[in-house]
Amino acid sequence: xxxxxxxxxxxxxxxxxxxxxxxxxxxxxxxxxxxxxxxxxxxxxxxxxxxxxxxxxxxxxxxxxxxxxxxxxxxxxxxxxxxxxxxxxxxxxxxxxxxxxxxxxxxxxxxxxxxxxxxxxxxxxxxxxxxxxxxxxxxxxxxxxxxxxxxxxxx
Length: 155
Fold this sequence. Notes:
By secondary structure, this protein is mainly alpha-helical. The protein has helices at 2-8, 10-18, 42-60, 64-70, 76-88, 91-106, 116-139, 145-154; strands spanning 24-26, 32-34. A hairpin with a 5-residue loop joins strand 1 (24-26) and strand 2 (32-34). This is Retrovirus-related Pol polyprotein from transposon TNT 1-94.
């Protein structure tokens, strides 16, 4: 999905990472209010447009069931977080997946009745999933020796 959004517009992906919020102003009485769209600066308009591009790419890249869950989202980051949690789970679930995949990798064997291509496909599947999970953990600065060992093996 990330590649799809970047292909639409690299800045659209940055809109997800930067987590756009609605522009606000401080009223005369000191209360913070949402800014009217007609008073947006060019930078704020561009940021809203990039958020719309990212949100449109996300909406176009999911099936109908997922779209029903994220359709009410106004910001791309919000929709992305919902989808990420739906697919990857929270940190506890990710850690469990990581341990399961690590175990599958450590116990990987080639059987006599399988071809090298089939073994290689299994190896790629496990290593790609491990790499994706490890990348997610390293982004949140999770530190665990086995994860760091695997990440150094992957690079």
